[in-house]
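Apologies for my clumsy wording, but could you write out the amino acids of a protein and the tokens describing how it folds?
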Amino acid sequence: MGSGISIHPCAPRDDAAVAALSGLPSSVISDVMGRLVGTTGLSLVNRTNLTVCGVAVTVKVRAGDNLLIHKALDMLRPGDVLVVDGEGDVSRALVGEIMMTSAIVQGAIGFVIDGAVRDSEAFEEHPFPCWARGVNLRGPYKDGPGSINSPVTVGGMRVNPGDIIVGDADGVVAVPPTDALLIGKMAHDKVLDEQKMIADIKSGTYSSAWVDALIKQKGD
């Protein structure tokens, strides 16, 4: 029988793709991707509204077990975001201050954990952005199995190794690097449109006639 452990190299880093999405809101990116992309049920552990834009290193683990996360820490590169599919289990924390410190030393810029974390104050103090499904003081097991740099699902969102991860107070989105330039341009244009809409609302020049028109259309 196999060990149930598979480890693959990290995907190449696409700096242009990261730059194209940097600074854009996760909600706007989700909108221009058809409103079908983005995490649900994961929240920013930090009280301060932190943001992240980096390259996904993915890990799949058994509920409550972090053996393969420890291995992935050694593989992290500057600008990486560790994305962990912990099966949504919150009965035991998968990462805490020690593992966060290791990630920081490697140059990683954030965690996305579909599971629980602990030492939440440490994430605030550094500060190090971390999205998780919950917080639990109970520690994990270290037995495996699991995989590194295979496709995973976190918060209902599929993430492939090398995807560009954009996270903020609203949640996290993953963008394939091959789509990043186009998605970035679309999201930037939408940000400008929304800024104009807000300015029109404040000035009293905004028209919501489209609402009545749409309701009429739906009633036909």
